[in-house]
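Holo prediction — adenosine-5'-diphosphate.
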Amino acid sequence: MSCFVVQSVSKCYKRGTAQEVWALRDVSLSIPQGSFTVLTGPSGSGKTTLVGLLGALDRPTQGHVLFQGQDLGACSDVGLARLRRRMGFVFQTFALIPRLPVWENIAYPLIPRGVARASRYEIARSLLERCGIANTIAKTPEDLSTGEQQRIGMARALAGQPEVLLADEPTSNLDARSADLLLALLHELHSKGNTVIVASHDRTLVSRATVVLEL
Ligand code: ADP
C-alpha cells in the first residue's frame, strides 16, 4: 500500500512572468506506507517543493498527489486541514513562535487534541531531554542557536506521534552527535509503523533509509 502516489506532477513558481521557474517537471513516484523514505538530490532539485506538495501545503501546477488513495486536488480546504493534522512537519526555517517558551512551542499542536497541560509539559520535557537540549525548556526560540531551534522544530513535529512525518533537511545545522539523537527519534517513530519522509543529502540519513528517491 502506498502512503503517497505522485502522478506526472509539475510545479511552476511565478508562472507566466520573467521569473518563471519549473521546480518539478513531470515527476511520478510512490512512497510506501510505513517506509523510511529519503528524498535526495542536489540543491535546487525540488526536494522542498515536493515535501510541500506531499503535505498539502501547496498544490501542483499539473498532475496529482494521492495520499492513501485520496486525490489531494479533490479535497476541500477543510478536508486538507484535517489530513494535515495526521502529519508532522519539520520546516527548513523551523517556523517556531518567537516569544512562546520552548516547551509550549513543542506542545502547541497537542492543545487541539485535548491533551492536558501537565501531560503536554511532560511530553515536551521528555523530547527535549532526548534531543540533548533539556536546558532550553523555559527559554524562548529567539535566545537559542540555529541548531537548538532545529531540534525544537523536530520535537514539535514528533510530539503528536504523527502517522506521517515530513522533514525538510532536519540535520542541516546539527553536529554528528545531535544528528544521531535525532535519527534515533525518527527511527523510533518509524518502528511504530509510521511513515517517515525526509528531504536530505545527509549520507547517514540516506544510509538508514528503507527507500531512497533521487530527484
Ligand atoms: P531543493 O529543496 O532541492 O533545494 P527547492 O524545491 O527549494 O529545491 O527549489 C527548486 C527550484 O524552485 C529552485 O530553482 C528554487 O529557486 C525554486 N523555488 C522554490 N521555491 C520558490 C518560490 N516560492 N518562488 C520561486 N521559485 C522558487
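READOUT: The longest helix spans residues 176-191.
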